[in-house]
Amino acid sequence: MNKNAIALPSLKGDTKLPVILNRSELKELFAAPFLLKQRIVLTLIYSAGLRGQEVINLKLGDVDLERKTIHIRQSKYKKDRIVPLSEVMVVGLKKYLSAEHPHIWLFNGKDGGQYSVRGLSWVMREALKKTQIQKKVNLHSLRHSYATHLLEDGLNIVTVKDLLGHSEIGTTMIYLHVAQCERLTPHSPLDTLYGRR
């Protein structure tokens, strides 16, 4: 074994690695639904790493388009958290809000009440049927892809843990087993301090 290699924490029992959609697959998926609302809801789940229950619980006041934040209230483990809202998502949400005029909930169901997780899962399944994606994925795969892509973009694991709302770092560690992270060349921080790298 390479003495410079970093050993990943071992997986407990018969833990399955999450299936991750690559960036091309995500673009294909987000373009698949005919309805704007369906495109927006799938894109939002990925863009903020939301659980299905979290996205249906979002109220209009939980999304701050100016500050580019989403306030997730009393999610799993009864914790609140704030996650960044993508600039691309702000544009999409503005278009959606002006077209749909939802009230109370960010995404209303057919009867004007809350959307359901079952409804979200149906949207995901129907969108997948219109794509060439062969992977066995579901709604939660969007959250797995979010976490993995953040790690691949260079974000540290502790920040990813907080963004996901995990109570234990061990839960987040599984994404290190699927992320394709580039190793940085060893360097002195003095070089980056003066922009010499």
TrEMBL record:
For this UniProt record, give its keywords in alphabetical order, as a comma-separated list: DNA recombination, DNA-binding
Coiled-coil spans are none
Task: Name the InterPro entries for this protein.
Answer: DNA_brk_join_enz, Integrase-like_cat_sf, Integrase_catalytic, Tyrosine_recombinase_XerCD
> Example GO biological process term?
DNA integration
What PROSITE patterns does the record point to?
Answer: TYR_RECOMBINASE (PS51898)
Q: Does the keyword ATP-binding apply?
A: no
In what residue span(s) does the Tyr recombinase domain sit?
Answer: 16-189
Q: Does this entry carry the keyword DNA-binding? A: yes
Single GO MF descriptor: DNA binding
Q: Which family does it belong to?
A: Belongs to the 'phage' integrase family.
What name does UniProt use for this protein?
Tyr recombinase domain-containing protein
